[in-house]
Amino acid sequence: MKKVLVVDDSLSVGRQLEKIISESGDFTCVGHAKNGAEAIKMNHAEDPEIICMDMNMPGMDGLTALRTLAVMDKEVKVVMVTSLGGVDIQRAHNAQMSKDLKLGDMLVEMGLLTLVQMNDVIARQKNTHMYLGEALVQVGALTKDEIMKQLDAFKADQARYVSSGIELPITSANSKIWEMTADLTFKMITRVLGLQFRPGKCTLATVISPNFMLAAMDLSGDIEARYLISVSEEGQKSIARAILGEVSVDHEPAELLEDTVMEFANVVCGNVAAKASQMGIVFNIDPPVTVHPPADGLPIPDGHTALNFPIHIVDGDMMEMILLIRE
Q1: H-type helices in 197-253, by residue range?
Q2: Residues 131, 147: contact at Cβ < 8 Å?
Q3: Are 327 and 303 in contact (CB under 8 A)?
Q4: Do the beta carbons of residue 256 and residue 240 sit within 8 Å?
Q5: Burial class (CB in 10 A: 0-12, 13-18, 19+), 71
Q6: Pick from 135, 104, 131, 105: which is nearest to 120 by CA?
Q7: Neighbouring residues of 235: CB distance < 8 A, sequence distance ≥ 6
Q8: Strand ranges (DSSP E) for the chain?
Q9: CATH class for domain 175-326?
C-alpha cells in the first residue's frame, strides 16, 4: 500500500482525511503534520509517496512547504487541499434553510393533512401553478376557513423566528456583507451539519454571553470584523458528529471536539470570503481560535457594533452567530 502523509492544522480535517485514506484499502496514513515545517520533518522520517497538504496553515503554509519539498524530494507527490469550492457554495445557496418553515410539512406533522393528500397537492401545483391553499381546498383536505385559521396560526408561530429575509437592526455600508454572512451560516448549518433549525431575528448585543464554547475568526481588509459561533455542549457534539461523520463522539478528546467547531467557522468564513470577492470586497481571514468570556459576559469594545443572530435548533438547543464589527 502507498504511504500517505496528511498535513493540516485542523485536527478534525486531519481525522477526516485519515479516515478516507484508511478506508480506501490502497493507502495507509503514516502521520499527521500540523504545518509545513512539521511536514518537511515527517517527510524525511516517514518517506511517504503522497502528501495531502492544506494550503492555509499558521507558521509555514502549504505553498511554502511545497516549494521546499520540490527541492528536497523530487519523488514525493503532493496533493493540495483547500476548503469548499464554488460548486458547494452554489449548492449551499440552493439548500432549504429549514424544513420547519414549510407549511405543508407542518400540516402533515399536525395530522391535518395526510402524506397522500400532500403529494396530491404538490402534483396539482406542478400542473396548474395554483397556490397551496387553493390546492388544499380542491383535494378536500381543509375548508377555506380552516386554511385561513391555520395560516394565521402558522404566521404567529413563526413571527418570533423569521422575518422577510434577513433584517439588520443597523444601517451599514457593508450591510449586504453581514446579511450574506448570516445567510451562508444558515445554509452551512443545513448543508454541512444537517441540522434543522429556525433563525431568530437579529438584535444588537451589548455583551457577548458566555457559553460552553465560542469559536472566533478575525476578518481584516476591506472590512474589519470578528465572526463568532457560540454553542452549548450538545451543540458542540452535534457539530463534531457531522464534521467527523461519526454516530457518537462521547469518547473523543476535548481538543478534537473544539476543533470541529472552529473548522465549521473556517468553512463558513472561507465561503463568505469567496462570495464577498465576487462583490468586490476583499479581506483576509485569521486562523480560528476559541474565546472564553467571563461569567458575566464579554463587553463589546468601544468603536464596535455586535450583531447577534440566534439559531434555534429543533431539539430545543440554541446556537448563536455573532458579528463583532469595527465601525
Answers
A1: 233-244
A2: no
A3: yes
A4: yes
A5: exposed
A6: 135
A7: 212, 313, 317, 318, 319
A8: 2-7, 27-33, 50-54, 77-81, 197-199, 203-205, 207-208, 213-221, 225-231, 283-285, 289-291, 298-299, 304-313, 318-326
A9: alpha beta
Q: Which CATH architecture has domain 2-82?
A: 3-Layer(aba) Sandwich (3.40)
Name the residue ranges covered by the structural domains of the chain: 2-82, 94-159, 175-326
pLDDT of amino acid 98: 39
Amino acid at 227: Y
The 10s digit of each residue's pLDDT in 29-65 is 999 998 889 999 999 899 999 999 888 787 888 888 8
pLDDT at position 118 is 65
- How far is 79 from 49, CA to CA, in rounded Å? 11
**Chain segment 159-190, per-residue pLDDT in tens:** 554 444 688 998 888 999 999 999 999 999 99
Q: What is the pLDDT of residue 292?
A: 86
2-82 shares its CATH topology with 175-326 = no
